[in-house]
Specification:
- 75% of the residues lie in helices and 1% in strands.
- By secondary structure, the chain is mostly helical.
- The chain folds into 2 domains: 120 residues, Farnesyl Diphosphate Synthase (Orthogonal Bundle); 200 residues, Farnesyl Diphosphate Synthase, CATH 1.10.600.10.
- The mean pLDDT is 95.
């Protein structure tokens, strides 16, 4: 069994060596750029580690695993364009470094490349792999649409938010573990358990992002905290603050959310203070731990020797205690 760090090195080395030989170079340079600026590589790592539960040659599925990472970064490229974000992982976004038209066209080509890479699997596995990925890609678009629709609503319910992040974020982690299991000839029950494992892990991961955006250490988090508060993003934190605030707290929350102009630091500090008063941090931490426990229960159902699960358990623990 290989560790998550060894798996991550396999993924990064493979991505670094991928050739881009088609022309024009100007179409592919942004794709190479996006894939070169780092990231946690959680999706390909999960695919390789799920495969490694059953087989000892995870390097044999690096191409489809990196196809999934290509797809993930394609979604980020277009998200950044829609959000008019200037930075991603401390680097200029594609539309900022080049322009919006380049971001659209290179992003579209990136999606096709993702399919091409994911399809490089044994023929007898192709239909199952593409069915899983295509369903996932459709769900992610649906999740993004819900996320955008929530921007203009003040009545978003917690269960709606959980379903949105399941679609937008966690199904891709679930897709990664499921495809890894399919490619490793895992029994059908294990394939479904590993899908559920990835889904629950993804829910915990996204809620961690919500929490870290408010309570993370900027030096470790890699960016200023409070971005979600400043932009009035509907997160688990804000939705529950709305629902649980008393009359006075609710009025102040609404005042900050509806303020046409504001001092960013003051708004972030005051809304964070309201979260503290209402108990939102503890509520979010409890929900994160709940989904991690659900993921652990799904992994426990997977029918392989316990020692083969150890590396994946350790990786889960790393994700649970991450601070960025």
């Amino acid at each position: 069994m290989i560790s998550s760090n060894e798996t991550l090195k396999l993924v990064n080395d493979f991505l670094d060596q991928l050739p881009y030989e088609r022309k024009p170079q100007s179409l592919y340079d942004p794709i190479r750029y996006v894939l070169s600026i780092g990231g946690k590589r959680i999706r390909p790592v999960l695919m390789l580690m799920a495969y490694n539960l059953y087989k000892d040659d995870p390097e044999s599925i690096l191409m489809p695993a990196c196809g999934l990472e290509t797809y993930h970064n394609y979604t980020l490229l277009h998200d950044d364009l829609m959000d008019k974000a200037d930075l991603r992982r401390g680097h200029e976004t594609v539309h900022k470094r080049w322009n919006a038209n380049t971001a659209i066209l290179s992003g579209d080509s990136m999606l096709v490349l993702a399919y091409q890479r994911i399809a490089q699997v044994p023929k007898e596995k192709l239909a199952g792999v593409l069915d899983c990925f295509t369903q996932t890609a459709l769900e992610i678009g649906e999740g993004q649409e819900y996320d955008m629709a929530f921007e203009t609503r003040s009545d978003v319910r917690e269960e709606e938010y959980i379903e949105m992040i399941r679609l937008k974020t966690s199904v891709l982690l679930a897709c990664a573990t499921k495809i890894g299991a399919i490619l490793a000839d895992a029994p059908e029950k294990d394939v479904e358990s590993l899908y559920k494992f990835g889904e629950q892990l993804g829910l915990a991961f996204q809620l961690q992002d919500d929490l870290l955006d408010v309570y993370g250490d900027p030096k470790v988090f890699g960016k200023a905290v409070g971005g979600d508060i400043a932009s009035n993003k509907k997160t688990y934190m804000l939705i529950n603050a709305y629902n649980l605030a008393n009359e006075k707290q609710h009025a102040e929350l609404v005042k900050w959310i509806e303020a046409p102009t504001f001092n960013r630091d003051v708004k972030v500090a005051r809304v964070t203070s309201l979260y503290d008063e209402i108990g939102i941090r503890q509520l979010c931490e409890e929900k994160i731990n709940y989904y991690f426990q659900q993921a652990a229960q799904c992994l426990a159902k997977v029918n392989v020797p316990e020692e083969r699960k150890q590396a994946l358990r350790e990786y889960m623990d790393e994700l649970l205690h991450r601070n960025k």
